[in-house]
Predict the 3D structure of the following.
Amino acid sequence: DTGVSQDPRHKITKRGQNVTFRCDPISEHNRLYWYRQTLGQGPEFLTYFQNEAQLEKSRLLSDRFSAERPKGSFSTLEIQRTEQGDSAMYLCASSSRPTLQSTDTQYFGPGTRLTVL
Amino acid sequence: RKEVEQDPGPFNVPEGATVAFNCTYSNSASQSFFWYRQDCRKEPKLLMSVYSSGNEDGRFTAQLNRASQYISLLIRDSKLSDSATYLCVVNPKAGNNRKLIWGLGTSLAVNP
């Protein structure tokens, strides 16, 4: 399977704990995105990498959230001092640079479902 | 006005029916448009990109009306497996997919 993968698929943690999620994009994709999705809502953009550079962060991404993509391949999203409001599905997507023949279509991983107790 | 608006439904239709969803967007300069499908507790999956000339993929037809700022998705001969949430997605800038704007989705239930 050469799609986007995420690990873990589910995470249950106690309030105040730190959690880290991993995303492995499609290998030839240089763009990587993190989203958060809660029930009944569309995905909310969190942050974006082009290769190893984090080019944009949403205002939704508080100081407790940090994301890295150190070698331009996999990425990690860390949440420190988790709160109950952090409970959501965290989705990773990747895409390649658009060309004249193709748009910059994003492909999603299966997500990490976080439950903060 | 929301940037992307969809009727949340649910749409309940019998197998074999034709069903259409509309989605309106507020930014007239928006560049590209997509329909994603999302099954319950799963990730969104690209269903179709939407081109100015309209495009068809099997039972699915997508159309764009720039003048009225809406896109549509038509599903013909609906199957039980079409039951899902259909998300309308708008890219406000060419070559920049960092800030895709997502609708809340339209829920479809196809009944036997």
In short: Residues 51 and 64 of chain B are 7 Å apart (CA to CA).
